[in-house]
Amino acid sequence: MLTGLDHEEDDKGTVWNKEARERDRDRMSPRQAWRAIQAGMPEDVIISSDIGNNCAIGNAYPTFEKGRKYLAPGLFGPCGYGFPSILGAKIGCPNTPVIGFAGDGAFGISMNEMSSCARKEWPAITMVIFRNYQWGAEKRNSILWFDDNFVGTELDPELSFAKVANACGSKGISVKTMEETTKAIKQSCEDQKKGITTFIEVILNQELGEPFRRDAMKKPVRVAGINKSDMTPQKTNN
Amino acid sequence: MTKMTTEEAFIKVLQIHGIENAFGIIGSAFMPISDLFPKAGITFWDVAHETNGGLIADGYTRATGKMSMVVAQNGPGITGLVTPIKTAYWNHTPLLLVTPQAANKTMGQGGFQEVEQMNLFKDMVCYQEEVRDPSRMAEVLNRVIEKAIRGSAPAQINIPRDYWTQVIDIELPPIVRLERQAGGVEAINKAAKLLSEAKFPVILSGAGVVIGGAIEDCKKLAEKLDAPVCSGYQHNDSFPGSHPLAAGPLGYNGSKAAMELISKADVVLALGTRLNPFSTLPGYGIDYWPKNASIIQVDMNSDRIGLTKKSNSRNLWRCKISFTATFK
Known about the structure:
Chain A is about 35% helix and about 10% strand.
């Protein structure tokens, strides 16, 4: 079923996904990226994922023949799980290829570990960072229930995780096509055997998947109204 | 009785339980034990942030089935562990949380790096205990480790930091490892009857099948019943993906095939899953949970049986049981 799916649907009356496809025609959709990644994954791989739009779209994709191979954040749902948990998996299974996944929002929460994991005592991993420059899951909520009012959803487009990786002594690369993605995944798993950690930035279009909490959301109504002129300055002793 | 220091007692208990890895940021509050790590065969993985350290420990255990410990400096080091410890709690990860506390001598005066660490983790662990006397260091640590294993969740030992570097005269405590219990005769018979008479039984395999090492048992049972197997949300590795009866994961962005299959079930055998409500929310516009089906729930925690779904046969089993024996 999933092999035929390439794109995310818009709810009736919304156009974000359609416009996202048109805006960045040369970029992969999240599902295309997942298929390219799967094509490059070694058979015995352990993978971890994160909370967020691009990781969650991939929920149904990976299958495994053995247990203890898929580390997802679980039901506490912390952003920033994918990177540290895959480090732990590799510490426990140093001879198994491992690939961690996180979106660019969630990765920002745990990326300080880039400063510790490149030391020679630490085992090598592959970390995929899905780059769509937004807190995607929350943006989808803003689209569906808050009239595209994007408060706090935009990430820094100038930031290069690949450059940060290089500065930390790891390998950092950026990929834009399915072919490049598959190749980078394969190469990075080979490189793990040589002790090389690779951070792969996968550049995506801005399509957004299903909201996490259709069950918990509803469109707000305005009753008393809110005015900027009601803001009262604080008194200080300065 | 043997004379030893409190830190030696602590390390000896870690060794008895085979805890070889510790994750955290170095701090004076536990330096008496970190000082002994290299001699003891314990690797200290010094991380950049405690929150990551806790999540690294979770990943380590989930990938290996082995337990590790997480440790940090009292106060701000320890508060950084709240998020990963609760994460490990809901991932059912046994984990030893070591929280050195501001010294008893000054606790309550609002000195340096002081916070109530027992209150902090009250809702984050399956068990917590503070060492009340230096002579009880080994006894308490042993119990906390046992509780983490029994509860398959993090457990906390809180240690006033002025209890280190004291000489005690103790016996090291024995390990008391409980055997995982199978279901009672009545429960198993009832479940067997329901499954034998089912027109379209469907298995839901969860994290407990992975943690309990029961994937092979689950496979045999599925084949015996010719029942499709849906995996719990985010537990895609709880059943072999290439097996003809594998249907894929339920839940958010899960497998549509799994959802359609389970919606038709007249009996659901839920193995090693607490049936978290988020994990069975409608997907692709399908409200797939079979509300009229008989549910046989197998979970290590009796508090979860029937909590979220109507359950016809309330079985408390550990997952690792020989299902096939029941159906011969």
